[in-house]
Amino acid sequence: MDNAAGGDAGAVTAGSWSARGQWRIYAVALLAEVSLLDAIWIIYLRDRGLSLAQIGAAEAAFHLAPLTLELPTGSLADVLGRKWSLALGALAIVLSTMLLWTTTGFWMALPAMYLWGASYTFRSGAEQAFLFDALAEQGETSRFARLFGRLRSASYLLVAVGAWAGGALAGIDYAWPFAITIAIGLARVWLAAGLREPVRERPAHRRIGRNIVEALQIVRARQGLAPLLAFTALFWTLSTLIGLYVQAVLSESGVRTSDVGLVVAVSLVVTAGGGWIAHRLAGERRFVRWTVVFTAAMVGCGIGLGSGHLVVAIAAVLVAGFAGGLFEPVLAARINEGLPAAQRATILSVESFLISATMIWAFPLAGWAAERWSWGTMYAGAGAVVVVALVIWITVGRRTGRVRTEG
Q1: Are 203 and 79 in contact, with CB atoms under 8 Å apart?
Q2: CA distance 380 to 367
Q3: Virtual CA dihedral for 123, 125, 128, 133, nearest 10 degrees?
Q4: Planar angle of CA 243, 320, 64, nearest 5 degrees
Q5: DSSP character string of 55-107
């Protein structure tokens, strides 16, 4: 282990994070979830004269960022330090918001949305890696699922509050949500730059490209890891298909827009509740069994949402939210276990890259399938794909001894 290689002035002795750094990383993580623009940016761009086609292209630019930047930003976090990646992510959202606020047309909206998407890539691997390494420094990695679950629980509540506040403030003046978002972003830059990095194994070099290659080699060499990451991407794609298309499904069933918003808000609260108690499942050490249970639940919820029965559909959305909230910390803890600290953020970015790559083709395909056949058929087909991915992961893992019924 070479803690000196790629050293950071913020690296300190064991014990320092527990005493002095917890509040700062919590603040960085939670403030990142306070987005006042999520619920208004399309309305804002329409007011600026952009057509729906141009707004769709801007959304595509947002999703292009993860495909092009996930691995480089994850490697940057490993090589230069997680705190600098988090600081750059916060700076990206500041620049994005400034561009979006001052946009005069389509060509300014494109880089603004790309930077918005890029901000997520800087924190997607770095945040989890920082938390896990900080706990590893203290010899307390068993607490990761609990800590991560509680943070995710609070995050879902903050997303709901941010969406409500952004809409309310935009009704007064667009300047308010944009100015507050910039202020929060600058606060995140300051907080992240002041983090003390946990002592951890560092890459023996400072080349981002080489670190990406090493991370991909690790994923390939650890049989069972690549199939698990592929399953993860498909599982969260199905979960997102349920969470986003619920608006269309309920609207087609005659539910008022205000009531659709209420269902979505309640589902976020339920998801937060799942994240709050998720650590209890992580301690059971039955990851494979829980994965099968949550997969069955998510597939069933998708089919229930597309069943055409309103009560069943609403119940399915709430159960899916709760299941996702429970499973996310358990899955994150499992993936982090055993990863080398020197490439942890990069490997976690591989997971995020796969999720983004899957969602890009899955969403238009799912929409087409729902229009061509039905919502129920679409969700059944998507669920079948997730089940196949689960079977492949379990089969590969058992052949190599990396998956055990109780492990």
Answers
A1: yes
A2: 13
A3: -120
A4: 35
A5: HHHHHHHHHHHHHHHHHHHHHHHHHH-HHHHHHHHHHHHHHHHHHHHT--SHH
**Lowest-confidence range among 74-78, 173-177, 197-201?**
197-201
**Burial letters 317-339, b for 16+ CB under 10 A, else e:** bbbbbbbbbbbbbbbbbbbbeeb
Q: Considering the chain, what is the average pLDDT of its residues?
A: 87
Please name the residues in contact with 170: beta carbons below 8 A apart, sequence gap of 6 or more: 40, 43, 44, 176, 177
Which distant-in-sequence residues (6+ apart) come within 8 Å of 365 by Cβ?
A: none
The span from the CA of 265 to the CA of 262, in Å, is 5
Predicted confidence (pLDDT) at residue 143 exceeds the cutoff of 60: yes
Return the percent helix, strand and coil in the chain, to nearest 5.
80, 0, 20
DSSP code of 121? Answer: H
DSSP letter string, 151-173: HHHHHHHHHHHHHHHHHHHHHH-
Please identify which residue in the block is written with the tokens 């509680």.
Answer: 150
**Residue 345 contacts by C-beta under 8 Å, 6 or more apart in sequence?**
74, 75, 77, 78, 82, 85, 125, 126, 128, 129
- Angle at which helices 375-400 and 225-252 cross, to 10°: 170
Q: Look up the pTM and report it.
A: 0.84
Closest listed residue to residue 74, CA positions, set 29, 127, 125, 138: 125
Residue type, 366: A
Separation CA 95–CA 111 (nearest Å): 10
pLDDT of residue 13: 40
Token pair of 285 as six digits: 């050490």
Task: Give yes or no for a contact between 318 and 262, defined as CB atoms under 8 angstroms apart.
Answer: no
Could you give the C-alpha distances from 224 to 113, 293, 400, 403, 404, in angstroms and in order?
Answer: 35, 19, 8, 8, 12
Give the span between the Cα atoms of 240 and 360, in whole angstroms: 12
Question: At 382, which amino acid appears?
Answer: A
Half-sphere exposure of 27 (CA within 13 A, CB side): 18
* Residue partners of 273: CB distance under 8 A and separation at least 6: 153, 322, 325
